[in-house]
Amino acid sequence: MTIEAEIANAVCGQVATPWEMRVDVDPLEAGSYQVELYVTDYNQNPPQRRLYASKPLIVPAQIFRYYLPLWGCFGQSFSPLDCPASQSPNRQGAWL
User: Is pTM beyond 0.70 here?
Assistant: First the structure.
């Protein structure tokens, strides 16, 4: 998979600024891919196209999400049978 980006022929500021680039590649079949990012710099004469990064990408066949309940003990014993499963009314939003 090849992603193309470019640096426009414009004047840049003197201070480095954090940046990011997001690229939608959906939908992809499950499998292994090699992603290559090429950047063309139009400030050069003639414009220069260079490989900026090359990384593997794995698309899983399935994604599993497990949501565990927040109940039981958070002290010495982790067994829900050894402690109450509810908070007392005076502990709103925090476990002390």
Answer: no
